[in-house]
């Protein structure tokens, strides 16, 4: 395995759910309509190839640079300036990946292995949207294009060769089954999606396809709520209208993940009182949870989290871990394949120059030999060997170790080999 950095080098910098709280990610969030402006700033700062990944889980920039350390600082400066966040607020709250680690990270993101809930189907679509935005802005060059194509191939393999993608679907199916147990016909029910987490979107979309009568989306950022409502084909409302929204909701899907309990016993109790005890089915897919545990003690409130839904779906932790291990093994295989392909592409110009040199020497030898084939081949061999022979003699005079390394390289390049006697007699 070759971990030698490739040039130009890939770097991924930003904030994700591993490194930073939701509040900071919200401040850094880049709406789809704002991506062209951010990409233009990155390009003006000297990054000709750049891509913005902005989801509920992450705000990251993938870029190509010669000096990755300078590029990392530049990206953080641009992100801070674009969002109005103080640069110091990003210290210790961001992640950075370089070279092979950056390739591995992008592959894992596309395959939904770096999401709060593994296997979410929306992530690959979000990566493709970011790819289209970069292409439209003129910041998706050959390096990013190649790594993204390889990421899509990786995601396809993970989906087709493991059961990792079945988990979100099974969770959503469990949610539908339980919602019908509580309310019966979903066509008569109204849903409320709180937050824009991908798992929440998966369940909401599944329920809509299963016949849920109406759906409203709310989120911390109005731009996120509006974008998600557009994707789901439903209404959106401000988060501060939560008391009113709860009263009208038969099914609540909460995916805010702010780190605090936004749906309290008091709030749900008040909504149930206005609803005259008509039940509310609540699904908490946030990590950490959004719904106060005491809500489950209320008559008329039925609360389920991801583990509960998985229990209904009969999917165990061991099966999840096995599927994840298989998926990460595929990622490693594809990272290695990409690295080899990239190294091969980087060697192509040198091979082309070598071929051109040989062709030029061949033409000159033929001209000088005036039709004498034996003379032409002798001239060609002497001329092609002149520079390598001179270089080997110079190395022998300077440092024996370098000479031996050069000889080994010649052996490998031209398949020369040595008999045992020659090898042992050195």
A few lines on this structure:
With 426 residues, the chain is α/β, with parallel strands linked by helices. The chain is built from 16 helices and ten strands.
Can you walk me through this structure?
By secondary structure, the chain is of the alpha/beta class. The protein folds into three domains: 9-164 and 320-345, Beta Polymerase, domain 2 (2-Layer Sandwich), CATH 3.30.460; 166-315, NAD(P)-binding Rossmann-like Domain (Rossmann fold, 3-Layer(aba) Sandwich), CATH 3.40.50; 370-426. The protein is 57% helix and 12% strand. It has a six-stranded parallel beta sheet. Strands 2-3-1-4 form a four-stranded antiparallel beta sheet, with helices on both faces. Helix 8 (198-209) links the parallel strand 5 (190-194) and strand 6. Helix 4 crosses helix 13 (317-369), helix 6 crosses helix 13 (317-369) and helix 7 (166-183) packs across helix 8 (198-209). The longest helix has 53 residues, at 317-369. The protein is elongated, with a radius of gyration of 30 Å. Residues 1-6 and 420-426 have low confidence and may be disordered.
